[in-house]
Amino acid sequence: MRVSFDIDDTLVLRGEQTARETGLLPGWLLKRMGEPLRAGTKSLFRELKRQGCEVWVYTSSLRSTVHIRWWLGVHGLSVDGVVNDDIHRVRLEEMKLDPTPSKYPPAFAIDLHVDDSPGVEMEGNRCGFNVLVIAADDLNWTEKVLQAAAVCRSR
User: Fold this and answer.
1) For the domain with range 2-154, which CATH number is right: 3.30.565.10, 2.30.29.150, 3.40.50.1000, 3.40.50.300?
2) Which residue among 18, 50, 69, 108 is buried most deeply as judged by most CB within 10 Å?
3) Within the chain, which residues score under 50 in pLDDT?
């Protein structure tokens, strides 16, 4: 089973009051070199992998796959796959989908996508893929992801 995560406003929360993960680098250096990682991400990724899931990043940003892997590595994490806007566009052009959704996890055999956007959820409903929308202020977001993954796995 594959679970993917959006970056902006899902894994990266901006704002001084936002709880963040610590990285492998000192905090002052981490602030200068990378984006903040949402608190709970490390334990969530590890638990999903322990359960046999592949963990992916699926973002509509223009960050390179190398940058995304480096950023997660600074936090002590790795992912099984990365889809950025360039990869998404090439794959969907090959598939000739009309209209083209902003994200289409089935094109990458992704079973569950976690995002902050209700628009992506609407596309999931229209195009037949599973999306869990989580809010930036949701303190129980990791439990919701694990529950949604369990539901997808049981289908």
Assistant:
1) 3.40.50.1000
2) 108
3) none
Task: Identify the CA nearest to 124 among candidates 105, 99, 148, 146.
Answer: 105
What pTM value is reported for the model?
0.92
**What are the Cα distances from residue 56, in Å, to 10, 20, 96, 125, 129?**
13, 20, 23, 21, 15
pLDDT at res. 92: 95
Largest CA distance in the chain: 47
Going from N- to C-terminal start, the domains of the chain cover 2-154
CA dihedral in degrees (65, 8, 36, 50; nearest 10)? Answer: -70
The reported pLDDT for the residue numbered 17 is: 55
Q: Which residue has 């990869």 as its token pair?
A: 87
What pLDDT shows up at residue 36?
A: 83
- CB of 92 within 8 A of CB of 107? yes
Amino acid at 98: D
Helix (H, G, I), strand (E, B) or coil at 69: helix
